[in-house]
Each structure stands twice: as structure tokens, then as C-alpha cells.
Write a structure and sequence with these properties.
Oligomer: single chain
Shape: elongated
Largest sheet: 5 strands, mixed
Number of strands: 8
Number of domains: 3
Order of helices and strands: EEEEEEEHHHEHHH
Length: about 220
């Protein structure tokens, strides 16, 4: 049978746990059709001598949420053999969020990933409010790798301190759990006089429902 692509002379590691082995790989209509010694013709032939031929890797923890808009190849993930990335980790996503509130989620990625807001403003055309609308926007982009994503907690719950106190209070009633929160800048500079006040305030929130206060 003619193939669309034959990768010849490579060392195959197929992910099954078997030892590596030397083989050709034939691809038809986007799927692997044959692994073995292939002599049939193909529209394209790649010589993989001295190279590993393996399935693509899945990176389960990335922050490609903004980069996907200006980097179709998904660098540098694609350079490492990664063919699928999962973005939206650590609670940071760009949706659900209306354009008028985008500074909130942009700030999350700026803080965690050091992506300048100006770069995101220039590179992202904001056309969504809901998460399904965000997925529609991603679907329309050119992409060299596959993307999956979480719905980030920080996008869903850009709430005031009253809600934070309620969440911590519920944990206090259970006397269990860990609540992690960033310090809005007071934790960015060693010796900042606001650090002690900030932590004291958070401990006070924890004591509202139960003593001793949860550990921060």
C-alpha cells in the first residue's frame, strides 16, 4: 500500500514498556498504519537513522494560555517532542472573564509567569466572556501542537475579602485544608513593612470561626 509518510531506519520507543527496537513507521491519513520493515512507496520519506521515533509527549502543567495567541508552534514545548500541552494550571486562566475585567486575569499571568501586560495586550484579541467562547477563540487560531486547558479557579473567583473570609472560615470549621493566597506585592520585597500586617490580617480571618488559626 502507498503511504503518505514513511519514517525509515529509526529506533522506536513506543511507550509500551518494551525495549527499544529498530523499525520503519508508515503513516496513512494521519495515522500509523505499519511498524516494521517497509518497502512500499510513500509520498514523503524521512531518514531517522540515529534518531528516536516515539509518540508525542503530553505536558500536563503549562501556562501557555497567553502564548498560544502569538506563537503557533508552541515553543519551546514542541522542540522537546511535546505534542499536547495542558494549560490553565495553578488556577491561572484567561476565561471565564469579560473584556472589561481582563486586567484581573492578566495580572495573574504577569505575577506568576512574568509576562508583561503590554505583550498580552498587543498579542491577544479579547473576544470572549465565557469559557466555551474562549475555546471557540482558541479553535480559530493556527496551532502546531494540541492544547487542553483547565478552568482556572482564579478566573472564576476574583472575589472580595468577604468571600475569602467565608472560604477560610469554612476550612476553620472543618479544622482542615490549606488555603494559599498571594500577597499582592508585600511578599515581593524583602523586609517590606506590610508583610507582618498582611499575615496578621490573614490569621485574624482564620480565627473568625475556630481557634487556633489555620497555618498560613
Amino acid at each position: 500500500m502507498p503511504y503518505d509518510l514513511v519514517i525509515k531506519n529509526g529506533t522506536v520507543i513506543d511507550g509500551s514498556g518494551l525495549p527499544r527496537y529498530r523499525a520503519d513507521v508508515g503513516v496513512s491519513r494521519g495515522r500509523i498504519a505499519t511498524i516494521g520493515r517497509i518497502r512500499e512507496s510513500a509520498r514523503e520519506v524521512l531518514d531517522a537513522e540515529c534518531h528516536i521515533v516515539a509518540p508525542g509527549f503530553v505536558d500536563g502543567h503549562t501556562h501557555m494560555d497567553a502564548q498560544i495567541f502569538w506563537d503557533p508552534l508552541g515553543t519551546s514545548s514542541c522542540y522537546h517532542g511535546i505534542t499536547t500541552v495542558v494549560m490553565g494550571n495553578c488556577g491561572f486562566t484567561l476565561a471565564p472573564c469579560a473584556a472589561k475585567d481582563k486586567h484581573l486575569v492578566v495580572r495573574n499571568l504577569q505575577r506568576a509567569e512574568d509576562i508583561p501586560p503590554a505583550a498580552m495586550g498587543a498579542g491577544i484579541k479579547w473576544s470572549w466572556t465565557t469559557f466555551p467562547e474562549f475555546l471557540d477563540a482558541l479553535e480559530a487560531l493556527p496551532k502546531g501542537i494540541n492544547y487542553a486547558g483547565y478552568v482556572g479557579h482564579s478566573a472564576i473567583r476574583n472575589a472580595g475579602w468577604d468571600e475569602v473570609r467565608r472560604l477560610v472560615g469554612a476550612m476553620g470549621e472543618l479544622n482542615a485544608g490549606i488555603f494559599e493566597i498571594a500577597g499582592e506585592g508585600v511578599d515581593r520585597k524583602a523586609g517590606d513593612p506590610g508583610v507582618r500586617e498582611w499575615h496578621t490580617r490573614r490569621q485574624g480571618d482564620g480565627r473568625q470561626r475556630r481557634d487556633p488559626a489555620p497555618r498560613w
